[in-house]
């Protein structure tokens, strides 16, 4: 769920302005998974725009503390959320760690990088939620390291049913700055897309793994 509606609308507007989110229903993108998609999201672009990254940092910091209480540690999911996670940790005056997709193959074989003590309360920062699988692998790694993961905060979610189910099964609360619904509402209101294109985007969101479009 979103932290609040005002933040969701403002975040969506920023993401569209800096082209972190691209909407192209007539010429779909192909994701790494092979899915065809009328939307592409690259929130790493946020770090290149100081006003936007500061807004995201401040909204995360304020809403994380309000929703979860102040944690002991902020954890970023590699690689997309390392930068913004560090900014949030700095803003809150907290230690920071990051979680690799899998353990290193050499050295100390770490998956969680940084200093983390067993029993510490951790909030995970993520840049984007699709199915939630990779994000929840990071949560699993933190739990195996002895952390008490209190929740996850992400910049944006596509709002897939499968993600909701995955987080429910993992017994983890997910809050986001913005989501697909607020993005589409804003994109229509600001005329980034037509109402016909909005319908295409909504149809894709219902069944993204099977959706295709005639071009």
Automatic annotation (TrEMBL):
<dbReference type="GO" id="GO:0019856">
    <property type="term" value="P:pyrimidine nucleobase biosynthetic process"/>
</dbReference>
<dbReference type="InterPro" id="IPR000836">
    <property type="entry name" value="PRTase_dom"/>
</dbReference>
<feature type="binding site">
    <location>
        <position position="104"/>
    </location>
    <ligand>
        <name>5-phospho-alpha-D-ribose 1-diphosphate</name>
    </ligand>
</feature>
<dbReference type="GO" id="GO:0044205">
    <property type="term" value="P:'de novo' UMP biosynthetic process"/>
</dbReference>
<feature type="binding site">
    <location>
        <position position="100"/>
    </location>
    <ligand>
        <name>5-phospho-alpha-D-ribose 1-diphosphate</name>
    </ligand>
</feature>
<dbReference type="InterPro" id="IPR004467">
    <property type="entry name" value="Or_phspho_trans_dom"/>
</dbReference>
<feature type="binding site">
    <location>
        <position position="106"/>
    </location>
    <ligand>
        <name>5-phospho-alpha-D-ribose 1-diphosphate</name>
    </ligand>
</feature>
<keyword id="KW-0460">Magnesium</keyword>
<dbReference type="GO" id="GO:0000287">
    <property type="term" value="F:magnesium ion binding"/>
</dbReference>
<comment type="function">
    <text>Catalyzes the transfer of a ribosyl phosphate group from 5-phosphoribose 1-diphosphate to orotate, leading to the formation of orotidine monophosphate (OMP).</text>
</comment>
<comment type="subunit">
    <text>Homodimer.</text>
</comment>
<dbReference type="InterPro" id="IPR023031">
    <property type="entry name" value="OPRT"/>
</dbReference>
<keyword id="KW-0665">Pyrimidine biosynthesis</keyword>
<feature type="binding site" description="in other chain">
    <location>
        <begin position="126"/>
        <end position="134"/>
    </location>
    <ligand>
        <name>5-phospho-alpha-D-ribose 1-diphosphate</name>
    </ligand>
</feature>
<keyword id="KW-0808">Transferase</keyword>
<keyword id="KW-0328">Glycosyltransferase</keyword>
<protein>
    <recommendedName>
        <fullName>Orotate phosphoribosyltransferase</fullName>
        <ecNumber>2.4.2.10</ecNumber>
    </recommendedName>
</protein>
<comment type="pathway">
    <text>Pyrimidine metabolism; UMP biosynthesis via de novo pathway; UMP from orotate: step 1/2.</text>
</comment>
<comment type="similarity">
    <text>Belongs to the purine/pyrimidine phosphoribosyltransferase family. PyrE subfamily.</text>
</comment>
<dbReference type="InterPro" id="IPR029057">
    <property type="entry name" value="PRTase-like"/>
</dbReference>
<dbReference type="GO" id="GO:0004588">
    <property type="term" value="F:orotate phosphoribosyltransferase activity"/>
</dbReference>
<feature type="domain" description="Phosphoribosyltransferase">
    <location>
        <begin position="59"/>
        <end position="156"/>
    </location>
</feature>
<dbReference type="Pfam" id="PF00156">
    <property type="entry name" value="Pribosyltran"/>
</dbReference>
<feature type="binding site">
    <location>
        <position position="130"/>
    </location>
    <ligand>
        <name>orotate</name>
    </ligand>
</feature>
């Amino acid at each position: 769920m979103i932290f609040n509606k005002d933040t969701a609308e403002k975040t969506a507007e920023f993401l569209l302005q800096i082209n972190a989110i691209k909407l192209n229903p007539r010429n779909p993108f192909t994701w790494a998974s092979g899915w065809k998609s009328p939307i592409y999201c690259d929130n790493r672009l946020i770090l290149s725009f100081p006003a936007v990254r500061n807004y995201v940092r401040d909204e995360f910091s304020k809403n994380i503390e309000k929703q979860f209480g102040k944690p002991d540690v902020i954890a970023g999911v590699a690689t997309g959320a390392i930068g913004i996670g560090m900014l949030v940790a700095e803003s809150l005056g907290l230690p920071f760690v990051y979680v690799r997709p899998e353990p290193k193959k050499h050295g100390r074989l770490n998956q969680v990088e940084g200093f983390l003590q067993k029993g510490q309360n951790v909030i995970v920062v993520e840049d984007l939620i699709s199915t939630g699988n990779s994000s929840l692998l990071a949560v699993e790694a933190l739990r195996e390291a002895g952390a008490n993961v209190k929740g996850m905060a992400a910049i944006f979610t596509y709002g897939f049913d499968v993600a909701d189910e995955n987080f429910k099964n993992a017994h983890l609360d997910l809050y986001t700055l913005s989501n697909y619904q607020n993005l589409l509402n804003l994109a229509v209101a600001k005329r980034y897309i037509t109402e016909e294109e909005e319908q295409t985007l909504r149809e894709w969101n219902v069944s993204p793994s099977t959706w295709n479009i005639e071009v």
